[in-house]
Amino acid sequence: MSEKIYCIAGFKPKPGKEEAVFKALQALEPNAHREDACIHYTVTRQIDNPFAQGTSYPIVFHEIWASREEFEAHCQRKEIQDFFAQQVEAPDGDIEDANVCVYTDEPWNFDAPKV
């Protein structure tokens, strides 16, 4: 059975704050990469492309964690808590809105072998 957790965290910067938000999110990457359970942790920004014209928040984190518990432990780190408090929740933060979702790659009713 796969225990991996996939997280997509989208961020909508306040007008004129796109570059500042991207840089602030990039600053979170090095310490997250130091966590043993971190499989993938990369912040990206939306670009124009005629073959992909969907709508989304313009800045998105793509994360893969070894397990739900380890993802939740990551979310409790002071650096992550401080980022959300200062940038998302505070009225003077640079982020207008955030949308954080987690996913699994395991299908419903998967009959994983017991080992």
TrEMBL record:
Domain ABM residue range list: 5-103
Entry superkingdom: Bacteria
Alphabetic keyword roster: Monooxygenase, Oxidoreductase
An example molecular function term from Gene Ontology annotations: monooxygenase activity
InterPro entries found in the cross-reference section: ABM_dom, Dimeric_a/b-barrel
Any one Pfam family match given in the protein's UniProt record, by short name: ABM
Name of the protein described by the UniProt record: Antibiotic biosynthesis monooxygenase
Lineage: Bacteria, Pseudomonadati, Pseudomonadota, Gammaproteobacteria, Oceanospirillales
